[in-house]
Each structure stands twice: as structure tokens, then as C-alpha cells.
Amino acid sequence: MAVAVKQICGAVATAVSVAVLVPVLVAAPAVAAPARCGAATGPYQRQLEAQLKLSVDGRQSAADCAAIRSFQAKYGVRPTDGYAGLATYRQLLVVQAGKNPNAAGKCPVRPRQKVACVDLSRQLTWVQRGKKIVFAPVPVRTGRDGMETRPGWHRVYWKNRHQISTVYNNAPMPYAQFFDGGQAFHGSYTDLFSGGSHGCVNMRKVDAARLWNVLRVGDLVYVWGRKPGT
User: Fold this and answer.
1) Distance CA 186, CA 11 (A)
2) Which pLDDT score, from 0 to 100, does residue 4 have?
3) In whole angstroms, what is the distance from residue 193 CA to residue 190 CA?
4) pTM of this prediction?
5) Gap between the Cα atoms of 157 and 218, Å rounded
6) Who contacts 181 (Cβ-Cβ below 8 Å, separation ≥6)?
7) Closest by alpha carbon to 88, among 120, 65, 57, 106?
8) Average of pLDDT values for 55-83?
9) What is the dihedral of CA 217, 185, 127, 48, to 10 degrees?
10) What is the average per-residue pLDDT within 29-36?
11) How far is CA 166 from the centre of its chain?
């Protein structure tokens, strides 16, 4: 190893002192290892195992936990902890719906007409024109038990970007699009993966904003199925 030497001249010409600088080895900053994945078995363990092509036994393993955590990270599910809970399962339904959410044909196709499809069973909404998907499926929260989102055919009859509820404590309803007797698509600031609405189709605000630009007054809405727990 080369040793750096620096000569220092003193006040007296004949006095020369030599300082030897010994290099100091500085340890590289430690890189934090990923936190150990220790989530317990979740209620949707089997569904996630099947989707991620893991051994389907309904029991959490270290490999299961790591794979579920990777899935959560990829699709922005929080917390990213490897637990197969409701929020992760709901995102799984969106992924499974993919580019063909109407594979079962439960949302009627209307040639050259837009239909906003509300699948209560899977808690998904998408828009199709004929057989073409013009608004990809997104997670929603529909009406709770006793206040269910009404099934059947409806039409968008009024839109208000800055709607405030006149019934439920002035609750904000951004990007509201009403389709049946006070029930509407609108953005929500609360957790979509717990409870239920008062009948409206709650959406993440960013999704409600995109849907606002897709639907027009007069467009069709079709609701079917049954929300889990109702």
C-alpha cells in the first residue's frame, strides 16, 4: 500500500520534519436489510396463493409472505406487509378482471352506446362501448346492508364536480355523477375497503376524476350482483 508523505518546511532551513500520513480505512455505510416478512395467514390466503402460482394450502409461509408483499408493492397496496387482507384481495380482483372484465357477460352490451358497469359482487366498475372497454376496471365501495346500490338499468342524469351531500353532514362528493334517485358515482376520501356507502358508488378520487371525463349525461349505467355482507 502506498504511503503518502508530506514534507513540512520549518522556520530554520536546516530543520526538516517529515509527517507520514497513514491512510484510514472508512467502513462503507451499512445497507439496511429488508424487514423480515412475518405476516400471519390472511383471510384471502388461498386466493392470493392461486393468483401468484404458489402452493395453495391456505397457510402463510415465508415464500408466500414475500410474494404477496411483492404483489402489494407492484400495485400500490398499503401497507406492504405480505398479509392477504381485504385491500390486497380487492386489488387482486382488479388484476384478474384485467382487459376483459365482462368475460362472464353479466353487463349487457349495447352497440355504439357507453354502459357504466357496476359489479356489486366483485365491487368493481368499468365502462364499455359495445364490447370495447373504454374505462378499465377500478375498485369501488357500494351501498351497505339496508342501503344497497339499486340494481338494474339507470342513466346519468346530472353531474356536479364539487357536490356536497345535502343529506349526510355536508360530506364532500367530488366528481359526482348521479344516475338514480340521489345515488351517484363520486370520489371518496375514506377507506374504500371497509364498510359500505349510503347507496352511492364510492371511488378513489383519482378514479372518479377520470370517470368524469368518460361519462356524459344520458349515458347508461347497469348495476347487478350482491355486495358481500349485504
Assistant:
1) 83
2) 42
3) 9
4) 0.81
5) 6
6) 150
7) 65
8) 95
9) 180
10) 57
11) 29
For range 107-127, the mean pLDDT:
97
pLDDT band for position 29 (50/70/90)?
Answer: low
Cell of 193: 375497503
Q: What mean pLDDT, rounded, does the chain reach?
A: 87
List strands edge to edge, sheet with 220-224.
Answer: 132-139, 124-129, 114-119, 220-224, 152-155
DSSP string, 70-105: HHHHHHT-SS-S----HHHHHHHHHHHHTT-TTTT-
The three-state secondary structure class of 12 is coil
Identify the pLDDT of residue 10.
Answer: 36
CA distances from 202 to 10, 28, 96, 147 (A): 81, 49, 21, 13
Identity of the residue numbered 26: V
Grid coordinates representing 54? Answer: 404458489
